[in-house]
Amino acid sequence: MRFRISTIALAIAASLPALASAVDFSYSGFSTAAYAQTDTDEAQVGYLGQEEGIDGDGTFAIDSKIGLQVTAKFNDMISATVQGVAYADLTADWKPHLDWAYVRLQPTSNFSARAGYLRTPTFMFSDSVFIGYANLWVRPPIEVYNLAPAYQLRGVDLLWRTSLGPVNVTVQPYYGDSEAKVGTNEYTTEVPEWGGIVVSGDYGSLTTRLGYGRMELGTTTPAIVPLITALNGGPAVACGACASEARRVDLDGEKFTLLDVGVQYDDGTNVVAGEYASRDSEHGNYVMPDVHGAYLTYGRRFGGLQPYATYAFVRRDGVQESTAIPAVGPLAALSASVNGVIGTVTNDQDSYSAGVRYEVPSFWVLNGAVVKFQYDHIDVKKGDGMLNEVQPGFDGSLNMYSLSFDFIF
Fold first, then answer.
1. Which residues does 326 contact at the CB level (< 8 Å), separation at least 6?
2. In angstroms, rounded to a whole number, what is the distance separating the alpha carbons of residues 114 and 135?
3. Which residues 6+ apart lie within 8 Å of 31 measured at CB?
4. pTM for this model (two decimals)
5. Taking the C-alpha atoms of 128, 133, 138 and 139 in order, what is their torsion angle to the nearest 10 degrees?
6. I want to staple 45 with a disulfide (CB 3.0 to 4.6 A). Which of 54, 128, 301, 351 is the partner?
7. Phi-psi category of 244—alpha, beta or left, where left has phi over 0 and alpha has psi -120 to 50?
8. Average pLDDT in the 71-83 region?
9. Is 138 in contact with 63 (CB distance < 8 Å)?
């Protein structure tokens, strides 16, 4: 048996050079080194559930990242791609992640199918959100890009391209599941079912896009579990609304729809980009409330220099306060707890940004590099807006300064 295994191993080893020569390997890489700081320690800028974000102490961790992508092309029909990225995730730890790992089947020039780890095309720049060199901003506007609780799909998607007269149309349906580690305690947000479709059209310098997705969550926030237990524990005769309130603070089994409409115009000198997105829940969830957000960016190129400006907002569509449980009497504590949840999640916020992007001449092994400086002014209109770790006494306004160096190789 040992001799047989050795013989097989020698045969495989002998065939490796021929196999390697038959596969066309290619690679690319990208990196961002970025520093960001606000003018307050009473609130933090970050993504949904991120317990350590950008504040008055400043940080290199939140926006910095490095990634490498390797593609193996076996023939004209079959290829495989793997992309690893190191960045600060929702647990606030800076560590490597497997971002993409999929096999692509392309039987025709205008149709392909992928299966594996994919980035869900929820928003217009979802595919390039980690590649700072490809983006105009230091970071995409969180008023839109903070609406989805997960971004990676374990599943399949299809890509079909066709032409309708002068318009090039792309249709991309997708389906699968997902999960994300959240918070310093690293609890897992599970998405057992996630499907959707994106339709986009290109006409000259203009790109338009419409995306729709539907997801179901499979876990709830651990901090909310005692409240759900308490709401479900009492007799219905004593609190007729407790069961329905428990459903609205529980994420487990809640279904959400995500709608995104995007437009981009780039004629080589002027760049205009805008998106509108909304998130709606089946039961009017209190923890991830119904919201809509949008942004509009304009930039203009002057050689290698490109100044830009952005206005963005998010508005909460769900209730601001629940009166389903009496605020006085024996149920007052439950009523206060429910409203405490409502008051500390996503709410109304405006942001105003101005920045400049400078294209650095290529050097060494770098295929391209840019330096960006960005100033953001954030105004919270209600509650905590989209800010994290908001402290008592915060006046609802902050300024943020960011500097980044992005390159590809």
1. 332, 335
2. 25
3. 65, 66, 67, 406, 407, 409
4. 0.89
5. 10
6. 54
7. alpha
8. 96
9. yes
